[in-house]
């Protein structure tokens, strides 16, 4: 493995061939640079159910993956004209976010989990949904840590938060500032290989249901 990592950087490879000891920080930096350039894709093994490898996975995310502000720009399009637009991961840029998951919480109700791409999201803020041309009022916001929900008042570019009880917002929706609209690509929908529907031959009676259940 040391040899494979060394081959990713000329200076490190020369040091390896000379028989010199390679520092852990040098190896981590090389793996990080190669990962950011998408020359390699680190794979880790573990089991969250048995709490095996979870800490190592979180360390690898911090060590090898880019921080939100290190990503140059996020590409979207003008929802009206269709022309390409780019937004920097900057808290001072116009607000935009992407809803990537929706869950139903037994206490908080519907939670829309979103990533703030640019700008800042605050409680009681009115946001715009370009896909449906509607406005929504932001209510309670939470930072999720497993099943724990910590209430927050704001979220900056790069942060992930959950917003409670949006009415007309679904997974895949873009949220933005109405004065600076932008639309990000939604999730990829794959075409099913087979589609069919089942219909009962006749409306079952209570007697037939009881007989079938016993059988």
Overview of this protein structure:
This protein is of the alpha+beta class and 215 residues long. The chain is built from five helices and twelve strands. Strands 9-8-11-4-3-12 form a six-stranded antiparallel β-sheet, with no helix packed on it. A two-stranded antiparallel ribbon has the order 1-2. The protein has a two-stranded antiparallel ribbon with strand order 5-10. The longest helix is centred in the N-terminal third of the chain and has 13 residues, at 24-36. The protein is extended, with a radius of gyration of 24 Å.
Task: Estimate percent helicity.
Answer: 10-25%
Oligomer: single chain
Q: List the uncertain runs.
A: 209-215
Number of beta-strand segments:
12
Biggest beta sheet attributes: 6 strands, antiparallel
Shape: extended
**SSE order, one letter for each helix or strand:** HHHHEEEEEEEEEEEEH
């Amino acid at each position: 493995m040391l040899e494979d990592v060394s081959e990713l950087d000329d200076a490190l490879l020369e040091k390896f061939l000379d028989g010199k000891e390679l520092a852990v920080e040098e190896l981590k930096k090389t793996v990080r640079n190669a990962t950011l350039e998408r020359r390699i894709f680190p794979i880790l093994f573990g089991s969250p159910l048995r709490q095996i490898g979870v800490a190592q996975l979180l360390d690898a995310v911090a060590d090898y993956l880019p921080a939100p502000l290190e990503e140059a720009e996020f590409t979207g399009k003008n929802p009206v004209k269709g022309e390409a637009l780019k937004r920097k991961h900057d808290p001072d840029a116009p607000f935009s976010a992407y809803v990537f998951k929706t869950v139903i919480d037994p206490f908080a109700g519907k939670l829309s989990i979103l990533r703030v791409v640019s700008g800042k999201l605050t409680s009681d803020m009115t946001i715009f949904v370009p896909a449906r041309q509607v406005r929504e009022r932001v209510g309670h916001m939470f930072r999720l840590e497993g099943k724990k929900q910590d209430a927050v008042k704001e979220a900056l570019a790069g942060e992930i938060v959950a917003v409670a009880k949006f009415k007309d917002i679904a997974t895949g929706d873009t949220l933005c500032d109405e004065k600076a609209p932008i639309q990000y690509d939604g999730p990829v929908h794959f075409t099913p290989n087979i589609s069919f529907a089942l219909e009962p031959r006749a409306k079952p009676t209570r007697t037939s249901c009881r007989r079938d259940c016993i059988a």
